[in-house]
Amino acid sequence: MTTGSEALAAIRDQAREVGRGWSGSDADPGWALTAALFRALADDGDLLDLAADIPPDRLPALLFVASVQRVIADHPEDDLAAYYPGPHQRPVDRAFADVLVDFAMARRDELRRWFGHRYQMNEVGRCVQTALALGVVQTLAPGRPLSIVDVGTGSGLGLLLDRYRVDLGAAGRFGPEDSSVHLTCSVEGRPPLPPAPPEIHQRLGIDAAPIDLDDGASRAWLAACTPPTPDAGRRLAAAIALARAAGPSIVEGDGATVLGDVLAGLEPGPVAVVIDSYTAVFFDDDERARLAAAVAGYGRDAVWISLDPLVPLGTQADRAVQALPVDDRLVTANREGGVFAVLSLWGSIGGEHVARVLATAHPSGARMTWLAPS
């Protein structure tokens, strides 16, 4: 049985891990506020006690910060709001933690109203990595159409990854030039670019609590779960507009439970591509095993693209969500430097088993290191 002190320790550990992942000496200045929110939570007993009101399976550290951001949107006059993006944004300083504590204690009842929600960070910038992995699938199955199933899709933004323009700097560009969604990413290494625009035959999302993008309150919650940087807000707004026009199909249900049925309902012929971006990291070992079993049991060509931190989330992480060997240096980097994503590919195509660790990436998707040979 988990004690109160153990629950607080778990929240503290996850908050510190996430905070470190968004900070660092080379971090983008726009990420400082995200790091400061998690760091303040980890360091303050009153904030931890409040976050402990969130059920453990609702990701207390992450949901607490999203709740703060949702409530501060209703109080632009509050001192805390000055730290958020705007024409006169106040840089994070020594007073920030005290301002956050004062805000949370004064608005604790408002914060608690959001503690029953699900954390839904749809950072569309992460589609840079999943689109590159999709390009690897295209290379392994040349000329084959693809059917995409996005597990934990939220509002379906990840289902439209081929409709975004991606700029990798010196590493190249791909995607439609006239797209309203522009994603940029700095890259170490040389990832292979997709050989051609993918032919996507079907697009289906799965989510336990799908987000209705036509509902203003739902869009506000999605924004609250997004890092508080101007570029992230612009990406989200543009992707929401595109998704509302496209109307992606989303199945309501737990991904590990319904994936098998969703795969069984796909039309035969295309390669089935299961995509999971920061979803399987929040599953337990049994749920991840069921996800893998559904891919393996498809009976035809199927692969699983994973963009997830090492598990379990926190400083004790020691393995990837897929059954792939992970370099000890990645385990050490996670423990010492904070959370980051591992991009990997697992499944089978043409009777051949596929198992590759492709890259690592910052939680925003704006930086990555390509590990696999081009």
Could you describe the 3D structure shown?
The longest helix is centred in the first third of the chain and has 18 residues, at 4-21. The protein is built from 12 helices and 12 strands. It folds into 2 domains: 4-112, no CATH class; 124-370, Rossmann fold (3-Layer(aba) Sandwich), CATH 3.40.50. The mean pLDDT is 94. It is an alpha/beta fold. The chain has helices at residues 4-21, 32-43, 45-51, 60-72, 96-106, 108-112, 127-140, 216-224, 230-246, 255-264, 285-296, 328-337, and strands at residues 146-151, 165-167, 173-174, 182-184, 186-188, 200-207, 249-252, 271-277, 302-308, 341-349, 352-361, 367-370. Helix 2 crosses helix 3 (45-51) and helix 2 crosses helix 5. A 9-stranded mixed sheet has the order 5-12-11-10-9-8-1-6-7, with helices on both faces.
- Which runs of at least 5 residues are low in confidence (pLDDT < 50)? none
Distance between the termini: 48 Å
Individual helix count = 12
The largest β sheet comes out as: 9 strands, mixed
In angstroms, what is the radius of gyration?
Answer: 20 Å
- Arrangement of strands in the largest sheet: 5-12-11-10-9-8-1-6-7
Supply the helix-strand structural class: alpha/beta
CATH topology of the largest domain: Rossmann fold
Could you say what the CATH architecture of the largest domain is?
A: 3-Layer(aba) Sandwich
Q: What is the H/E string?
A: HHHHHHHEEEEEEHHEHEHEHEEE
